Amino acid sequence: MSSNLREYNRIYKEVNDIYRDAASKFGLSNSVFDILYTICEVGEGCLQKDVCDATFIPKQTVNSAIRKLEQEGYLTLSNGKGHSKHILLTESGHTLLKETIFPIVEAENEAFTELSFEECNLLLKLHSKYTTALREKFSKL
User: Fold this and answer.
1) DSSP letters along 25-93, please?
2) Fewest C-beta in 10 Å: which of 44, 63, 91, 94?
3) 95-134: per-residue pLDDT in tens?
4) What is the CATH topology of the domain spanning 3-139?
């Protein structure tokens, strides 16, 4: 294993740990955090499929976490086309989003301001290039 790969893996795991700690700080599981974050990002009324596509979390895990949020009164589901369900936040769901996800997004945006415009673009370009190459190499396994 190259030293570059080791360092990349360390950074990747550290970033995941930062998000896991943030979710835990707000009393959220990783999957609930990811669902709320996606609703914030994609918009209310998104489909469960949208959450799966955005988070890469298995459908069953997303469904279980959404059911939990529904039982806790944070969201409701409304029928879409076929079997699809639209995710709608309740008043307490909007409050939860404002108290948990909004501060995270604000911190992320502030962290990005530590990078120049060029550094930001380079970070995104290189990470995307690596992800594409990794997907291609893994598809051949």
Assistant:
1) HTT--HHHHHHHHHHHHH-TT-BHHHHHHHH---HHHHHHHHHHHHHTTSEEEEE-STT-EEEEE-HHH
2) 91
3) 999 999 999 999 999 999 999 999 999 999 999 999 999 9
4) Arc Repressor Mutant, subunit A (1.10.10)
